[in-house]
Amino acid sequence: MDPTIFKAYDIRGVYPDQVNEEDAWKIGYASAQFLRSLLRGYERGQTRSQSICVARDMRTHSESLAGALIRGISACGANVVDIGMIDTPQMYFAINHLGTCGGVQVTASHNPAKYNGFKISGAKARPVGVDTGLKDIEHIAMALLHTKGRATGAVRKHDLTEEYKNHVLKFLKPGIRRLRIAIDASNGMAGKMVPAVFGDLPMEIIQINFRHTGTFKHEPNPLIEENLAEVKHAAKKQNCHFGVCFDGDADRLMMVDEKGQNIGCDLITALIAQYFLNKEPKSTIVYDLRSSLVVAEEVLKNGGTPRRERVGHAFMKKALRDSHGVFGGELSGHFYYRDNYYADSGLITLVHVLNIVSDAKVPVSELIRPLRRYYTSGEINFQVEDKQAKMDELARVYNDGKIDRLDGVTIWYKDWWLNCRPSNTEPLLRLNVEAKSKNLLDEKLEEIGQRLGKPFMEKKQTKKQKPIKEPKAAKAKKVTKKKKTAKRKTVAKKKKATKKKKTAKKSKATKKKTVAKKKKTPRKKRTTRKKK
Length: 532
Fold this sequence. Notes:
The protein has helices at residues 21-37, 62-75, 88-98, 130-143, 161-169, 190-198, 229-237, 265-279, 293-301, 313-323, 346-359, 364-368, 387-397, 438-452, 459-462, 472-531; strands spanning 11-14, 51-56, 79-85, 102-106, 115-122, 155-157, 179-184, 203-208, 242-246, 253-257, 262-263, 284-288, 305-309, 327-329, 335-337, 343-344, 375-376, 380-383, 402-404, 409-412, 416-422, 428-435. The protein is of the alpha/beta class and 532 residues long.
């Protein structure tokens, strides 16, 4: 087994070279052993506590990996509840709804089609990451010598679609007005779950990439700008109220307004925070430290308590639980809810946005406009070997600012700030800068960039995007126009060729006549002489 597949928050690699059925069996066995070891007292004797939920996404190899995973869990003596092909947030619901000791979702989230992996959760959907048990699971799995063992645990299938739908829609306000929304499912799990959950609502959904084909038209990562091209086009051309793009397992989303303009996830956090604080004043709102200053400002303005936290769903969920916060948002598109077991959900986020937009008397662009009061760089990656040394260098250079080390290094000034933090798995530093003016932002980016080097561009970010498919009517018009133009050109070309041919023929005939005329007289003279 390749040890590099064990990441900070999940297990992931290329199928079948790094992740295959043998690995899945071992990971299933190890997960069951670890999750059951956490049971205490009364729970140890309960059938449901001894059970583990298993589910998968739509990738072509997910079903066979899930089968091997189930056999491994069963061989360890744990019972399995197979809940089928679902979005990852439904796994969090299932663990709590069924009261199991945990669950494993077979998915590679936003990665390309050749990847697959496993997201493991403990009881009450608590995340299992490198600091909360994933290292133990890795040690057990790596130590297993074979994938043989008598299955002693029971396996049953359970479809939770109806219960999950009711759970998601309980957050929807009654009497919602009819809205038109463009949704790009990225050929992922939103393609199944959006119609299942929202199909009966008074809303029109412009469906983009809803089919499961085993491939992705664009990578299922909505954080990459080029992957938003289709939803932006649809939002503008089809007069939508807004547009949404989901990632592969539908736990994250990005949003665009009716003009097709990006709405940063920190601005969505600020918008939803206002909505929650109107309902529950003085609540805590958690946000990740890369977010705009707007988030904290809006929380304070609306009487709430802002809590700044490290990047990563494990930290965000723990902070929300510890602070009894009502809501949390991350720049990566994860949004967390107290009433959703402190877990993230793409579909519940869509529900809350529907509530807000339905109540609003202005377009989404106008709702967001007051929040666009700073200029942000977005996250920029730099390839750096000694990450700590570079962060220390920034702290020395900008030592007259306010500095903290919660996650990497954050430095504040009156009119700008920066956060520079290390990647968990790659030799990369991730930089975010925000300023009060565009000129100041550009100046600081150039200044900091001279110290960090040239920004690192991943291949997937520079890949050429396929042209957007136009609506059929527009396409038909365009094709007809092209055909007519081509026909006109062909007719003109033929006419020209015919004219040229006629001219050439005429010229040839004239030439022949002239030659014949010249030759005619001498021939007659010769004939006359013979007759005499």
